Amino acid sequence: MDKGIGDLAEFIGRALEKGISRTEITTALLTAGWQTEQIEKALDEYAEIEFPLPVPKPKPYLSAREAFFYLLLFATLYTSAFNFGNLLFAFIDKVLPDPAFSEHYAVYFNERIRGSVSALIVAFPLFIYLSAKISRELLSTPSGRASGIRRWLTYLTLFIAAGILMGDLISLLYNFLGGELTLRFILKSLVVGAIAGTLFIYYFGGLRQEEKNHE
User: Fold this and answer.
1) Phi, psi of 7 (to 5 degrees)
2) What are the Cα distances from residue 125, in Å, to 10, 120, 134, 146, 200?
3) How far apart are CA 151 and CA 184, in angstroms?
4) H runs (alpha helix) in 19-104
5) pLDDT at residue 69 above 80?
6) Coil, strand or helix: which one is 146?
7) What is the pLDDT of residues 97-144, one digit of tens each?
8) Are 57 and 47 in contact (CB under 8 A)?
């Protein structure tokens, strides 16, 4: 934690202990020159519950066990998403083949299908299992929901999904403006957008819900 924020949180803790309201504390700190964001962050260190002393909220922490489970969870997520998209790409290429492909493409197509299906058979059930295990064991307590590694990986996933969506739209617009849009390209763009968009909406919605419950 930033030293300034730490000192501010300590001051707020002493003020709350003396029975001073959050509104009065905020007004005094704003007058003293603190920024609203700094004040809100420091106030958020303490739970708004009835108790003789200020009750601190659990802080994000890093556990080797949790890091292992979350890294494995997101690795299986990425593997499943990539191979599911690759599988759909293969079927699109099968239905709408590129005339430039040679007769050897049939062999490549079968290997592509086999590889994607094999990866999904291994990765997706493991992703489902880890999701259930983490929800049951790690997310069932406030301290588990405060895991730093989970938030970092979630925001990383949002960043990757947003980047893919942006690249997908840029590529679609570029080909449209160049008059090079084909049904194959449109379908593949829709596949990429659907997978990345689903991941983005799911994890962004989860973070929003957490923040709402945290308020």
Assistant:
1) -65, -40
2) 46, 8, 14, 26, 21
3) 37
4) 22-32, 36-43, 64-95
5) yes
6) coil
7) 777 665 566 677 788 899 999 999 999 999 999 999 888 876 666 556
8) yes
Of 215, 73, 37, nearest to 147 (Cα)?
73
- Map residue 214 onto helix, strand or coil: helix
The residue type found at 60 is: P
Residues in contact with 183: Cβ distance below 8 Å, sequence separation at least 6, in sequence order: 96
Question: Which residues, 6 or more positions from 184, have their beta carbon under 8 angstroms from its beta carbon?
Answer: 92, 93, 96, 98
One-letter amino acid for residue 29 of the chain: L
Q: pTM for the complete prediction? A: 0.69
- Tell me phi and psi for residue 103, to 5 degrees: -70, -15
